[in-house]
Write a structure and sequence with these properties.
By secondary structure, the chain is of the alpha/beta class. Helix content is 49%, strand content 15%.
Amino acid sequence: MSEDSARESAEDKAPSDHHRVGSVTFRGRRVPDSTTDRRLLDSPQSQSWVDADPWRVLRIQSEFVEGFGALTGLGPAIGIFGSARTPREHSDYQLARTLGARLAEEGFAVITGGGPGIMEAANRGAYEAGGMSVGLGIELPFEQEINHWAEIAVNFRYFFARKTMFVKYSQGFVAFPGGFGTLDELFEALVLVQTEKVTSFPIVLFGKDYWAGLLDWLSGSVLEHSMISKADLDLLHPTDDVEEAVSLMVSASQGPISPGPRE
């Protein structure tokens, strides 16, 4: 058997499935059957689990240290959220790519969740425009590599550590159409602005048609039941225009923004 044939034969037998846990990759029989987040949040099943919890603090601490170390000195940045399922030929992908480029041209770094779809598009646009492109990945039950357009890629085990990095290093958020993950990130940002944990922090909803139902529900049922105030609605800026989104971010970086009325 030739050397090439032997190598090909060995590769055929190599495990094809893999799973990234922080900086470590497991393959084949070593792939864990749950994520680190899940093991942390599941109810303790034995005394040994309880005894091990204090040691997890060190792992959690290391995620913050690694994240802060990688992103220190990043400069002004904008977080862009959106679906990982958006195909490259979709108009939203092209708009996110354009937005990433325009933000880079204005001197902003672009931070995404590092996945495919909208996240890849925004990272790609920033990179192609010569700006800083950052991807913050997360350990999931299904493998999802950080896209190759992210110049700085940081993988996290814990969602709360990853979310802290988004908020600490972003001066504004743009939410493209997305699912539960996008909604989670959007509402966390809203709560932080509403409770004044962050200031001068614009939140743009890109895609008026997509977000119309959510805005109608907030301005209808939620407001009518006095669960929010009218001023809370002004924290959201729906738009279909890249330049409007960029203008909001630039204005916010120069001082407090004035919430605009909903159409």
